[in-house]
Amino acid sequence: NILAYHWYRGERIKNSQLIASYEVDRQVTITGPAHSGREIIYPNGSLLFQKVNQNDTGYYTLSIIYNDLQTESVIKQLYVYPPVAKPIIEASNTTGTEHGVTVVLKCLTNDTGVAISWFFNGQSLLLTERMELSQDNGTLTIEPVRREDA
């Protein structure tokens, strides 16, 4: 049986780095000096970060204390990626398109290592035989374009 869970910021168990503790029998949460006000510890020992940001990147240590006072610890690393910039969509033949015209849409971004997905009317785009995606998904070609593509 588990007596308590303790979460620490960093790779060591230090009182100054305590984020939060949960005492199972009393169902009590205690916050520590490293608590930012954005963390919630749950009765199962999990720790939730709210409004996560890049400053949360780092190592975290969970210490579990059992009723026989034996302890078990695990260290995990959390990496928070920087926000992705809003991409630019570049389109060819956008004015007065008519049946038979080819339209090329390009998704332009300076971010690296991002996956590009295309949506139509709020849903993931289902490609038809008239549509083709580039290998990196950055360019969508529609040939020929039709009114229902608008």
From TrEMBL:
Domain (Ig-like): residue spans on this chain: 82-150
Q: Which InterPro entries match?
A: CEA_cell_adhesion, Ig-like_dom, Ig-like_dom_sf, Ig-like_fold, Ig_V-set
Question: Keyword Lipoprotein, does the record have it?
Answer: no
Claim: Protein transport is one of the keywords in the record: no
Keywords for the protein's UniProt record, in alphabetical order: Glycoprotein, Immunoglobulin domain, Signal
Pfam families for the chain = Ig_3 (PF13927), V-set (PF07686)
**Family affiliation:** Belongs to the immunoglobulin superfamily. CEA family.
Q: Which PANTHER family match?
A: CARCINOEMBRYONIC ANTIGEN-RELATED CELL ADHESION MOLECULE 1, CARCINOEMBRYONIC ANTIGEN-RELATED CELL ADHESION MOLECULE 19
Query: What's the protein name?
Result: Ig-like domain-containing protein
Q: What is the lineage of its organism?
A: Eukaryota, Metazoa, Chordata, Craniata, Vertebrata
